[in-house]
Amino acid sequence: MSLERTVWRIMNLGRQEGAYHTAVERALFEGVSNGTSPPTLLFTTWAPTVSLGRSQSYALDVDVEACKKYGVQIIRRHSGGQAVYLDE
Question: pTM score, two decimals?
């Protein structure tokens, strides 16, 4: 039985736009997957954002005009699932 110790990285990105968080999450996912980054615990605070799953439709699932009116960013994440509203 191996008792190998894993070192984790902790990151606090603070309040950022949704596109920034999504890009960082994607880079961390790829780095951990290919062994170039350690496992990471990520703390975030989001500016108002609608995050769409990989195969969702903007036209069917989001009121784009309402998002523009209220300053809500719309992003697409690389994973699947339904739309999620993120905010502080």
Answer: 0.77
38: β partners: none
Residue type, 10: I
**Structure-derived torsion over alpha carbons of residues 1, 5, 79, 72, reported in degrees to the nearest 10:** 150
CB-neighbour burial class of residue 46 (10 A; exposed 0-12, middle 13-18, buried 19+): buried
Q: pLDDT digit string (tens) for 15-63?
A: 999 999 999 999 999 999 999 999 999 999 999 999 998 888 888 889 9
Neighbours of 6 (CB within 10 A): 6
C-alpha 39/C-alpha 33 separation (Å) is: 9
